[in-house]
Amino acid sequence: MTAxxxxxxxxxxxxxxxxxxxxxxxxxxxxxIIGRTGIIDEVIxxxxxxxxxxxxxxxxxxxxxxxxxxxxxxSSDRTGFGISAEDRGRGxxxxxxxxxxxxxxxxxxxxxLNLLKALSDDMTVANLLSGGAFIEVWxxx
Length: 141
Ligand SMILES: Nc1ncnc2c1ncn2[C@@H]1O[C@H](COP(=O)(O)OP(=O)(O)O)[C@@H](O)[C@H]1O
Ligand SMILES: [Mg+2]
Prior knowledge:
Blueprint: E1 8-17, H1 22-37, H2 42-63, E2 66-74, E3 79-87, H3 95-98, H4 112-119, E4 122-127, E5 133-140
């Protein structure tokens, strides 16, 4: 029996998010990467762009500044998009509460993290030892 093929990282690029104007740049980064993978699926692209928007808005609103990274991994039968956000803020005070639908610490809609969960196959919400928030989602196609 042969071992299952290990997924290989074929792209990893990051964009700094510290001001409103960085959101379109992070979106552009994803578009470029998708263009190079040769995957043309408008629904997936729209979902990934929504994920980037919500992560970037949370960095600016709750974390101050940080970065968003986009990774693409490929194995013989599927491709995974990993999108992560980390920031230099004070982290997520209550991880369970943050994921409760409608909860927002500052009168937001409180649906951003729920949307990420609904749009992805796998999601990690954590705080970095250095203090900021770390959120990563994976979507497989
Ligand atoms: N990067 C972050 N740093 C600190 N807290 C965060 C971060 N992202 C999310 N949170 C916390 O999780 C809550 C829920 O986030 P979200 O679902 O996006 O709703 P909203 O942004 O509308 O408040 C936020 O109100 C905040 O308390
Ligand atoms: Mg939000």
